[in-house]
Structure formats: C-alpha cells, structure tokens
Amino acid sequence: MSDPRSTETVEPTATSTVSADTTKTLRDEPRGRTGWARILLGRDAIMIYLLIATIIIAMISIPRFASPVTVGFLLLDVIPVLLIAMPMTLIIITGEIDLSVASIAGLTSALMGVLWQAGWDIGIVLVLGLVIGVLAGMFNGFLVAVFGLPSLAVTIGTLALFRGLALVVIGDNAVANFPPELTGFFTSKIGATGIPTVMIGVVLIVAVFGVILHFTPFGRGLYALGFSTEAARFVGIHVARSKFWLYVASGGVSALAGIFWTLRYSSARSDNASGLELAVIAAVLLGGVSIFGGKGSIPGVVAGVLLIGTINYALRLGRVSDVVLIIVTGTLLIASVVAPSIFDAVKRRRHDRRVRRELPQAQPSGSVSA
Amino acid sequence: MTDTVTSTPTPAPTPPPRKSRVGGSRLAAVLRLREFPVALALILLVLITYAANPLFLSPQGTKDLLLNATIIIILAVGQAIVIITRNVDLSVGSILGLVAFGTGSLFANVPGIPIIAVFAVGLAFGAILGAINGLLVTLARVPALVITLGTLYIYRGLNNAWAGGTQYFAGDRPDEFGALSVDTILGFPIITLLAVLVVVIVAIVMAGTRAGRDLYAIGSDPDAATLFGIPVGRRVFIAFAVNGLLAGLAGVLYASRFNSVGATTGTGLELDVVAAAVVGGVAIFGGSGSVVGAAIGALLLTTITSALTALRVDKFWQQAIVGVLILAAIIIDRVASIRTARRLRMSEARDV
User: Fold this and answer.
1) Is B314 on the interface with A (CB under 8 A)?
2) Among B130, B99, B125, B252, residue whose Cα is nearest residue B190
3) Which residues of chain B does A294 touch, with a Cβ-Cβ cutoff of 8 Å?
4) Residue A208: inside a domain
5) Is residue B212 part of a domain?
C-alpha cells in the first residue's frame, strides 16, 4: 500500500551513486529539493502559508476578528482536537488508526463527574481520570499490537465499548459543580494577550510529540513501520512494542482532552466530545499525514488543526451558518488528499515521458522497474 | 493454474484423503460458516430473553423487533458489498439523511405524487450520491476511508443547508406510505419483507455471478485482481453506487417508519452500520464475509437493545455490550483465519 513516490526521506537521501555498470543515467533528473528550498516549498510550509493567508484574509474581511478575544476563544475551541491530533499523527504514520479517542475522553469525563459527585478529592479525581484513559489505551494497544488485530475494526469496537462504559458510569446525569477555582483556571488567559493559560501545557505536549517523532530513533522508526512492517522488523524496530506505547499515549492524551473538556465547560456528561474522532482525523489528514502511513509531520498537523479551527471561527464570526462550516471541512479534506495524488500522477507522467525520450532503446517491458 | 500439456493421458488428480471425511463434513461445514457465530449468538439471545420474558416474542414484540432492524439491515447489506472490496463507506448516514429529507419534501411539495415514483427518485438520488463516492475513490486512488469521511461532512452539510430548521412530519405524507411500516403480511411488516428481498437478491448476486465473485477477488488482493484482468475500478465504482442505492432505499423507508425527518436525520449511523457488518463476519480488510452475515449482524445489534429492555437490564449497558460484541467478532474471525491458514498449509504439505 505504501507508495514509493514520497518525498519524505526515511533513509539519508540516496545520492545517486552510479556504480560502474552499463545503465545510462538520466541527465538533469530532478533530485528532490534540498536545504532551505525543501523546507520553504514542502507540504508543511504550504499548510502554514495557507494558515497565515486565511488569518490575514479573516482579519481584513471580518470585523472583530483581530482581537485578543478571538485568540482566546479560537484556541480554547481548538485545544481538544489539537491534543488528540498529536498521538493520532504518530498512529496514522505507522499505518494504524484510533477511532476510540473521543469515547476515551467521554469516559474520563463521566468518571470524573461521578467521583467528584461522590465527594472524592479533586486531585485524586484528576489522576484517576488520567489513569482510566491510560488503561483504555493499553486495552487498545493490547488488541492491536499484541494480538495483531486490525486497528480500524478494534477501535470501532472500543469506540462503542468506552462510550458505553461512560453511559454505564454516569447514565443520564450531568455533574456541573466542579470547584470554581479549577474551572476558572481552565478558561483564564495569560495577561492581556488572550492566550489561554492551559496553552502552556498544550504547547509542551505538542513539543514533546514533535521531538519524539522527528528527533528520536523511536520516531524515525515509526515512519519505517508505516512504509513496511516487515522491513521495519528486519531493521530491528520493535513493531509490537512501538504500537502498544502509541495507543497508551493516545489513551492518556485523550484523557487529558476529556479533563480539559469537562473543566472548560464545567460539565461532566456521558456524551462529552462525541464525534470528535472524525474531526481529529480530518484535521490530521488535512495536515499532510498519509492514511497509508509513512508520511506526515507534527508542524503540518498543527497547521492543519489551526487552519480548520480558524476557518470555522472566522465563518462563525462572519455570521456564516454552521452549514457551510461542515461543507468546508469535508471539501478541504477531500481536496487535501485528491490534490497530491493528481500532482503525483502528473509528475509521474512527465517522468515517464522523459525516460522514453532519453532512453529510446529501452523496451517498456524490458526496462528495469526500480 | 498450471496447464501442462502432456501427451500421456494423466489420471484425474483426485484427492483421496478428502473422501474419508465426507460423512462428518456436513456438520463441520456448518460450524465453519462465517455466519455461524453471529447466528448462534442471535438465537441464544432470543431464546434467553424469551425464557425470561415471554412477551418478547409476542406478535407486537416481534413486529417492533423487525421494524427496528429493517433500516440497519439494508444499510449493512450495502456496507458489506463495499467492505468486501476492501473499502468502506462512512457517508451512508448522511446519504440516508439527505434521501429521507428529500422524500419528506417530495411528498410535501408535489401533492398526489405516486409512492412508486418517490421510491424511484429516492433510489436514484442515493445511487448518485454513492456514485460520487465511487468516482472519487476510483479516480483519485485515495483510500475510501478518507474520501467518505469527507463526503460524510459534505452530504450532511448539504442536508443542513437544504433543510435548515424545516422538518417534515408523518402528517405531510400519504397514509398508504406510512402504512408500509405498519401493515403486516403473515406477521412481517411490509418494509421488513422488502429488506429480506434485498438481502436475498444481493446474496444471490454476490455468490453466483461473475461480478459478485470479482468483488471478493478484489478485496482479497487488488493487485492480483488487476493482473487477472478484473476491471477493478469499474467494479469498485459499482459497489459504491449500489451501496448508495441501498442507502437511498433505507432513506425512503426511514421517512415511512419515523415521524419526522430533518437536518440531522441519520447522524452517527455509519459506525453502527460498519459494526453490524463486522459483527456479521465481514472482514474489515475485505475478501470474506457475506451480506447474509451482515444482515444477521444488524438484526443481532438491534435485538440486543430490545432484549435489554425486556430483561429489565439498565439500558445504559446496551452500547458497551455492542462494543464487546464487535471485539468478539474480530477475535473469532482472527482465530478462524489462523486455523484456516494452518489447515491450508497442512493440506499443501500433504499434496506435495
């Protein structure tokens, strides 16, 4: 399934070392961009330009958009998706998926509500909320990584299971009387900037995932895993163990998102964050992560999440109905995956023409297909 | 596959060891059926519930049971066709919503329109929406999961834009249309019989026609199917269009069965439908399973809800049990496929 046409490099860029053989090499074959050009013209950069352009257009065309209030509400709205998108990026890069994230957030929320209602200390409530998320993630990880079951099916199952457990725990009730200092903290802003205080923690989590994915052997191994599980195993990557910990991380971060959701809206209900999984996956794919695995980056995903968040917020502020929002999200998603595959097709056709022009003697059937 | 043209008349290679097992193989074959676990679970569930609460299988109880299952059965059959080709369609809930609302507005705006015409329009509308999915999936060669996630949003958005705050109620529709899901023939509601008809037709096509078998080949190994000369793109496109058509049918029936249709009709149905197919033994990575299994899976999932009520179990347990069932289905499937692989290896080793 993995396509070999990607520009993402797993191994150090193969500088075409022509050994002494008879094959004629193509002159001037584009070798892929290097250095700054690579960064400034890459998929991530395009996402970031798009984000900046959207923000500028919104600031010009929509009154009241350019204000600290906007920054505050936009970020508060985006935080749950942004948080869950981090482990989701890593999981999709390995070629798996986790559909149960929103249900884990809901389960955390429900458990918090019940424990708090029962008079537990809020500190213990928070810790247990996190623990249940980690346990849920371990359960997913166990089924996917250890038993090798298909993650799409497994997490559809646990999506129902965890949401069901949330219902069992809290039923139709809603718990709202969380300590005001705490809920106040979750909506507070840093000085006059309008940036929510919790963003500090969110940025920290994003940075941790960014470093893990891009600067550690473990993270680089995830790309290899997404390209080919077999190959990754031969290179010495612990396939099962890597996947297991990704699902644990996903459970833990989803629990954090559930805690945030509960305290921000000061409401613990069984249906909190329901349907969020599709929004997260849409944002991650828009951010340039390939659903086939092996491709994607944290900066791209952050830009993707913020882009959807900004467009949604700007349209809402511009009194455009929610209707358009949904259509825009869907269209962006489809465009973001269809466009690269069209580019690829064009590029390949150009390449093929080149090969045929420069190597007229090579028979199509006899040519060495790399 | 290897046609060796030899001059010597080779005796037909009959596998002698198979013969000895014919006697007990009938039962073994039934036990090995992919539909067996889910059918057994359904029978046990119904029996246990009936033993605890005989009202469960009263004529009214049975009728409610079947009515509740009808729409999910039709959707699950369509979804099974798509999943068998190693794709998935997440947009069915949105297609159902659009068609259901379209049905409502057709009755409201065109007084006296014949019911059969409404069905035709609904089916065509669904087929077009499904065909759009199919076109995007086959032309752009992007995984169906992504494309149909996108169209899930787009179709839902269109539904919102079209409906706004409008809702159409059963009073806007002719009585004969509503009667489809009230009247019964031999105790079966008419729309349920329609669903059974759909299951039978699709099952025959999938099992007995070239196109149907091609879908399994595509799901087992798309590359091999291409090499074998199967028109993969065309077949997958048709699978999506048929799924859309069935979702359209489900949408029209939804408008008959339920009182109101509006902007949010059918929201969140997609995962229930995929779950029904998976529980019914349709492997999520394609190539195996049957539409009959998917239909039984749908029946099982809806029956659980009614059974829990009949057993006076807290209704909040329902979703958790559905989750456990899905996981159980996947694990059973895995165990079965490991066993099949081992058996194949053994028999290959023997035949050498």
Assistant:
1) yes
2) B252
3) none
4) yes
5) yes
Residue B335 touches partner A, C-beta closer than 8 Å? no
Tell whether B44 is covered by a domain.
no
Cβ distance B326 to A324 less than 8 Å, yes or no, reads no
- How many CB pairs below 8 Å do chains A and B form together? 144
Number of domains within chain B: 1
Contact B85/B218 with Cβ under 8 angstroms?
yes
Residue in B with minimal Cα distance to A277:
B149
Q: Do B150 and A330 touch (CB under 8 A)?
A: yes
Q: What is the pLDDT of residues A158-212, one digit of tens each?
A: 988 999 999 999 988 888 888 888 888 888 888 777 788 889 999 999 999 999 9
Estimate the crossing angle of helix A199-215 against helix A68-93, to 10 degrees.
30
Answer yes or no: is A250 within a domain. yes
The verdict on a CB contact (< 8 Å) between A167 and B316 is: yes
Which structural domain range is residue A114 located in? 81-297
Domain hosting B310: range is: 53-340
Report the chain A residue with the minimal C-alpha distance to residue B333. A149
Identity of the residue in A148, A167, A291 whose CB atom sits nearest the CB atom of B143 = A291
CA A257 to CA A104: how far, in whole Å?
Answer: 9
- Specify if A328 maps to a domain: no
pLDDT digits (tens, 9 = 90+) for B116-159: 998 999 999 999 999 999 999 988 777 888 888 888 888 988 88
One-letter identity of residue B148: T
CATH (domain of B174)? 1.10.3470
CA distance B95 to B100: 8
Secondary structure class of B78 (helix, strand, coil)? helix
Kindly provide the ipTM of the predicted complex, given to two decimals: 0.76
Assess contact for B168 and B162: CB atoms under 8 A.
no
Measured CA to CA in angstroms, residue A141 lies from A100, A168, A224, B322, B328 at distances of: 12, 23, 19, 20, 16
Point out the residue among A326, A338, A342 whose CB comes nearest to the CB of B153: A326
> Is A66 within a domain?
no
